[in-house]
Amino acid sequence: MYQAIPYNASRAWPAAGSPPAAVTAAAPGGEEEVRRAVAECPVVVVGRSGCCLSHVVKRLLQGLGVNPAVHEVAGEAELAGVVADGDVALPAVFVGGRLLGGLDRLMAVHISGELVPILKEAGALWL
């Protein structure tokens, strides 16, 4: 049986130059924090706190050897300014500063065999 990954909402978003934290707490001005995280980290998962789909995304990426930065938001409104078309569903996966998509798109890219090269190009994998 798998053990749950411990959750700690009190950890703050890392300052510039420090390694990304595994989990962050939602805060006012979340759109700007999401934009900064996407720019700084090779892989960012944006989802709601306790969302099972976010957990699946994180586990898939961790299974491939990627340690994604995770940002928890209250809703899709915090992503509206980050994504050009504004039509995004949570969890949202950003790879190399660009929106890859949600869980369905991530799974499709993984099954087709395109995910690992995308992750390598973004600098998230060194295999």
Which tags fit this structure?
single chain, 127 residues, alpha+beta, Glutaredoxin, 4-stranded mixed sheet, 4 strands, 31% helix, 13% strand, globular
In whole angstroms, how far apart are the ends? 28 Å
Largest sheet, strands/sense/barrel: 4 strands, mixed
How many individual β-strands? Answer: 4
SS strand fraction: 5-15%
Looking at how many chains there are and whether they match, the oligomeric state comes to single chain
Give a structural overview.
With 127 residues, this protein is α+β, with helices and mostly antiparallel strands. It has a single domain (30-122), classed as Glutaredoxin. 31% of the residues lie in helices and 13% in strands. The chain is built from 4 helices and 4 strands; from the N terminus they run H-E-H-E-E-E-H-H. It has helices at 30-40, 52-63, 103-111, 115-122, and strands at 43-47, 69-72, 92-95, 98-101. The protein has a 4-stranded mixed sheet, with helices on both faces. The longest helix is centred in the middle third of the chain and has 12 residues, at 52-63. The radius of gyration is 14 Å and the shape is globular. The N and C termini lie far apart (28 Å). The relative contact order is 0.17. Residues 43-99 form the Glutaredoxin domain. InterPro entries: GlrX-like_pln_2, Glutaredoxin, Thioredoxin-like_sf.
